[in-house]
Amino acid sequence: MKVAVICAGGPKTELPDLTSFDGGETVFIGADRGAFHLLEKGIIPQEAVGDFDSVSKDEYEAIQHAVGLIGKFQSEKDETDTELAVIRALAYHPDEIILTGVTGGRLDHMESALHLMYRLQKENPDVFFSIRNRFNELSILLPGRYEIGCADSLPYISFFAFDGQVMGLTLVGFKYETVNATLTTGMTKFTSNELTSCMCTISFRDGICLMVRSADA
Length: 217
Description:
Elements: E1 3-7, E2 26-31, H1 33-40, E3 47-50, H2 57-66, E4 69-72, H3 81-90, E5 96-100, H4 107-123, E6 128-132, E7 136-141, E8 144-148, E9 156-172, E10 178-183, E11 193-194, E12 200-204, E13 206-214
Parallel strand pairs: 1-2, 1-5, 2-3, 3-4, 5-6
Antiparallel strand pairs: 6-7, 7-13, 8-12, 9-10, 9-11, 9-12, 9-13
């Protein structure tokens, strides 16, 4: 499986263990200050993109020295640095794209990243997108059936309607199971569920579902 990890410039304290993603089929891309975050973790990204208005002159020189491919853009642009990084990540034809460094700082940046993931997941159904930090993993689910594996580090799992109603929601193998339920915007009923086995499934026939896996900080 080929994985693309995008690190944006959010607070370093929010970043997951980036070295856990570092494998032979992993591509790292730094978005603006995220490129420097990667270098500080001992990871040399394949690419760095953005306007780099969040790094100092010395930090940008370090990025230039280490990273082989840099796309520098003007600050006045239609896309965020994170979106530019995702566009580059898609060029590698990955099976999965992980966004990091987009939480814990400015809420508009986090909301932008969440809606970006929503749009790109709809446009690229064969690629699995997620947003991750130290204690959370967010992903957008399209209609269908999904197997949910165990993750001891993220024991809680919640489901929210992200675009209209989620119809026919069925949860099997969870502490709180349900069959053919309707999940509407604003509903909190499906918050903080837990897996009871490593063979759990979620399925639904209509709507868009936001899945959040979490741990206590």
